[in-house]
């Protein structure tokens, strides 16, 4: 028996909007501690990892670990039937054949009940080691999204250079080049707009803009985004939703043959 | 109800005694049987999850076939004797009583080998012996005796008759002999530790055979274990299957766009992160 009630239903809606861009089918691995999802895109160069901790739900009950294999597109379609203010309850019995979804409007006068057929997904799980990243950059998620969108005009890839003085995004394409630099600053009136850099060594890595643009679809989930970078290690892009949930993206760096 | 299909020696009055012994080549635990003082090994033909058995009115999901056949106890004994003598560069090792040789904490059923008829004679063939008390013999493996015995494999009655079946009259006699010898060696390499196989293979010269095979671009032995490999190849080229796979992959617009992204120079994440074993908690 699995049951989880999420008072802030829009959270789930936004997560699905973000993840469905990257993967088609995925397992929601439900356990005592919460709901986890890990999946790679088709070319296996990017990975998305979502965790919704049990304490983010009220109540949360999971008697037995079970994977709920879901077609994310179908789930997203059903979640679109839920209002932004709705309370969403997820339910599954031990057979694990279907996932029940209940949408309650805040003033309790409308209840929607939906069921999604589940499927068996044979999925490999990757063990992601704890890494001491050489550079950790926090910035406004909307700013990150804008830079990605702007530089896509120039080229298909972006080089990210992090130094103490700032983080620089550079692209060069057929008809020109573009670069955006953010300097660390504190904004007292508007904490979300602050940029901070923790650095043990300056790094310079190149990534596919298309993927980063897709990652930035998580912008509605969190005001701040954190980039974790190290040489020759996948980039980690993290959006945290309070203490009880996060969505993390990993992307393999582009390594130039001529280097 | 647990049931399975096996081919086994004709039923006799005595029950099959099931024991677990280390496999002579891999050293991993393997299933053996003893009946009427003879040792039998078990071979399992995997069904690859593609076959099931009808047994009377029931269906047995696991379509494996077990084959129980006689095996020479020497093959099982050899690695044990090698281990127990504890040979060093300046000592030939220990002499031990047969009961001590077969006493093993990891494989307690090893001692059951004493039920095999003539087990002492088997040991005498490949060991030096000493009598230290009336009717008490101690044994120590003798490499030369083993080499000698193994080299005589051409004389093994069972192997010779087996190999004759694969014989091909259209080839000249020395090639036929080389073919026969090689086939026997390949067969034995499944039972003898590689050390011995290397030693014996060195005594023969298969160059002529290799040249001939190269020139004609054929192999003389059709290996039945290739069967599954071939089958899976055929499957890959099954056009119907491929079509359905293509149909199944419904991509969202952005995923289709992602598929076009130039991923040159990007390593797969599996090269950075290790795969975890699949969660066993799955239903």
From TrEMBL, chain A:
Subcellular location: Nucleus
Superkingdom of this protein's organism: Eukaryota
Ranges for domain Proliferating cell nuclear antigen PCNA C-terminal: 127-254
Gene Ontology terms describing biological process: leading strand elongation; mismatch repair; regulation of DNA replication; translesion synthesis
PROSITE patterns per UniProt: PCNA_1, PCNA_2
InterPro entries linked: DNA_clamp_sf (IPR046938), Pr_cel_nuc_antig (IPR000730), Pr_cel_nuc_antig_C (IPR022649), Pr_cel_nuc_antig_CS (IPR022659), Pr_cel_nuc_antig_N (IPR022648)
UniProt entry tagged with the keyword DNA-binding: yes
Every Proliferating cell nuclear antigen PCNA N-terminal domain range: 1-124
A GO cellular-component term linked to this record: PCNA complex
CDD domains in UniProt: PCNA
Entry's Gene Ontology molecular function annotations: DNA binding; DNA polymerase processivity factor activity
Name of a matching Pfam family: PCNA_C
Record key words, sorted: DNA replication, DNA-binding, Nucleus
Record-linked NCBIfam families: pcna
Functional note: This protein is an auxiliary protein of DNA polymerase delta and is involved in the control of eukaryotic DNA replication by increasing the polymerase's processivity during elongation of the leading strand. This protein is an auxiliary protein of DNA polymerase delta and is involved in the control of eukaryotic DNA replication by increasing the polymerase's processibility during elongation of the leading strand. Involved in DNA repair.
HAMAP family: DNApol_clamp_arch
Similarity comment: Belongs to the PCNA family.
Protein name: DNA sliding clamp PCNA
Lineage of origin: Eukaryota, Fungi, Fungi incertae sedis, Mucoromycota, Glomeromycotina
From TrEMBL, chain B:
Gene3D superfamilies named among the record's database cross-references: 1.10.20.120, 2.20.25.530
GO CC aspect terms: nucleoplasm; ribonuclease H2 complex
Subcellular location: Nucleus
InterPro entries, sorted: RNase_H2_suB (IPR040456), RNase_H2_suB_wHTH (IPR019024), Rnh202_N (IPR041195)
Gene Ontology BP, a term: RNA catabolic process
Protein's UniProt keywords contain Nucleus: yes
Residue ranges occupied by any Rnh202 triple barrel domain in the UniProt entry: 13-72
CDD domains on file: RNase_H2-B
Keyword terms, alphabetized: Nucleus
Sequence ranges assigned to domain Ribonuclease H2 subunit B wHTH in this UniProt record: 75-200
Role description: Non catalytic subunit of RNase H2, an endonuclease that specifically degrades the RNA of RNA:DNA hybrids. Participates in DNA replication, possibly by mediating the removal of lagging-strand Okazaki fragment RNA primers during DNA replication. Mediates the excision of single ribonucleotides from DNA:RNA duplexes.
PANTHER family assigned: RIBONUCLEASE H2 SUBUNIT B
Protein name, as recorded: Ribonuclease H2 subunit B
